[in-house]
Amino acid sequence: MKSLYTRHSIFKMTALSIVVLFAFTLTAQTGTLPVMQIETRNRQPITSKTVYIPGTYYLVDNQNPDFNLGSAKQPLSLEIRGRGHSSWKGVKKPYKIRLTEKAPLLGMNKHKHWALLKYYEPTVAGMRLGEIMGMDWTPSTRPVEVVLNGDYLGLYLLTETNRISRQRLNIYEQPNWNEDESTIPYGWLVEVDNYYEPNSISIKENNSWNMRFTYHSPDSLSAAQRNWLINEFQHINTVIYDEDKVNSSWEQLIDVDAMARYFIIQEVLDNSDGFHGSFYLHKDLSDDARWVAGPLWDLSCNQRAKTDYTFRMKTSYGFTPHWIGELIKDGDFCRAVRNAWNDFYPTEIQSWMSYIDERLLPCHDALEAEKIRWSYTNQETLEVRVGKLKSALLANIEWFNNNLPDADTSTEVVTIDKKIVKVEYINLAGIRSAQPWSGVNIKVTTYDDGSTSTTKILFK
Question: Domain check: are 195 and 96 in the same one?
Answer without folding.
Answer: no
